Amino acid sequence: MRGEFFINGRREVFDFDSKKTLLRVLRENGYTEVRNGCETGECGACVVLLEGIPVNSCQVLAASVVGKKITTIKGLNDGKENGELHPVERAFVDAGAVQCGFCTPGKVLVSYALLKKNPDPTREEILTALDGNLCRCTGYTHTVESVKLAARYLKGYSEEGRDE
Amino acid sequence: MKMEGEVKWGYPGSLEEAVSFFREGYIPHGGGTTLIRSGLGAVYGLFTVSEVSEMRGFSVEKGRVVIGAGLTYSEIVEGVSDCLLVKALSHAASNPLRNRITIGGSINVFPYWSDAVGPLVALGASLRLVDKNGKSSVVGIEEYIRNREFHREYFIVSVEFDNNGKGRNFYHREVRTHFDYPFFTVSILTYPPNGEIRIVVTGVKGRYKRLSKVESFFSGIASEFWEGEKGYGWLVEKFKENFAGLRERVENDMDAEFVSRQGVSKEYQRHVAGVVIRRGVWKILLEAVNAGENYGGGVNR
User: Fold this and answer.
1) Could you give the ipTM of this predicted complex?
2) Is the N end or the C end of chain B the one with fewer CB atoms within 10 Å?
């Protein structure tokens, strides 16, 4: 089947198998920043934002989201190619929450969505938001710290008048 | 995962259009998480419910909650005021999955690890269904689960239940880690002032069981407490005098058959369920006492 998607602000039209998951369709069309981890919805490495809401792309049939807005980690900073990090990404680096990096895109996107909705999350709210993101090397303490740091960065970001 | 053949897709914008697709042999697609797991081999066509407004709204009128079948767990948790269902769904699966799993899909598929069905049975929920001709019917959730014809001939438009805010509730999902699918769940709900207690376990043989004998036992204690002149001390004594005995009584009265699963025997689950139910009822009654609730004229402090 043929379907249109709006990925990272860009209109894309793909020909794809109507039984394929969004994860497969994205990766086969060059969006390899969407990680393929478990393909059972357990690890959270494949998280993308669907209309701003985090979902496991391995658990979404691509045909079911035709016409929708999808954001991958590369689209977080308005698709800038200059290497400038989004404040949430920067916070993950600064707090030391990145090691092998495989889970990082999913975690950053979930954190971004959480902070959009709730600029001052409690530790409990952060843990609940990230309960679908597994990390096997860095652990979770630094991740929680990075979300708190990102909350601070985002406030600074707004104050400087550079808000999205 | 190998996927062969094509599946047709429909994108209805109204309930009427959804019914047309259903008549042609398409089936509703909510979040699709179970479909992906079970495979799409025999599926002819799917229609999305995300743009069907009748399946996407919720309302509360005089304590009656109506939830569109296409709402996700996250949307329900954010939109519906505190109740047993919200308590259960807020910890089900994981955040990205809660953003995808719909209540209608959960009821239709009802996997053994379901966090939705136990609370809905305890709440005495009803389902509004629509058939291939667009004819609407309302059936109780237990009737829907029992009768497979409803699954073939109808699809769920909305879920309804009473949430008058007076009852107290307790929910437990038995997991090894937070993220696990539960082996079983326990839903307990009270409806003062008559002291009625509803207790439902899921994950057992037959997928769920309402524990009527255990309900009667605890309802007896609760009624005696609410309606009589019993004090708080009486209640404490009633529970504390023989806490182990209460668990045994609960286990004996529990007319549910647990199922052994990887690493967890049915006997172990039965034992744990007994402990959980005893603690759950105890917690509910203590909460009521501590809140100064006084039903039926009894002196509760």
Assistant:
1) 0.93
2) C
